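User:
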Amino acid sequence: MSVRRVVPNVRSEAVPESREFYGLLGFEEVMNHGWIMTLASPSHPAAQVSFMTEDATAPVAPDMSVEVDDVDAAYAAMRESGAEIVHPLRDEEWGVRRFFVRDPNGQVVNVLGHR
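Assistant: Predicted structure:
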């Protein structure tokens, strides 16, 4: 299994203002579902930050997202380790397969793969 990208998820009630602010640093909007917006660097597309008001299908908003090439293997590894699964593995309507797990620091990590 390999990591494709890591994205901090910032809880925000100022999403449009965040787009403007980070735009001054060169970020551009690459995704916006209304409840989550992702900005990326045009020159380094894996350099991203997301701003979210809530999570559309999960009970909590994650602190970061980690995209992996095999989300099922990641889920099996986390379950086998005894890590706390906060949101079970599921296919989302926007084209990702994901689960949430709590890290040793109490942070909620959204582990995902694109279908």
